[in-house]
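Please describe what follows:
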Amino acid sequence: MTTLQTIHDVPVLMCAAEGETIGSERDALDLIGDAGYQGAQWVVLPAERLGEEFFRLRTRVAGDIIQKFVNYRMGLIVLGDISVHTEASSALRDFVRECNRGRQTWFLADAEELRERLKG
């Protein structure tokens, strides 16, 4: 289930925590298509909807999914606590830090941080 919300004049497709795991480029394309159809600029995806492979960078799942969002100029926000993954992998920790410096993909802890980042 997804809902379109506007946060600080930014249309955001909010994905429910319950639902299918997003684990492939095809899953990403389905989300991007839904978001684009609804007029969203960002997709907010709860971290628990991502498979374990996403958080293991060597699998390339994260790179493949994020690249689809970049290609279609759709922002991606992974929302939730991923500390168990970042504590286990310095490469993932560095990747998250770099993403959060940009304007395309963010890893945010909670809805409050999401509202702050979308303030502009």
Notes: The chain has a mean pLDDT of 96.
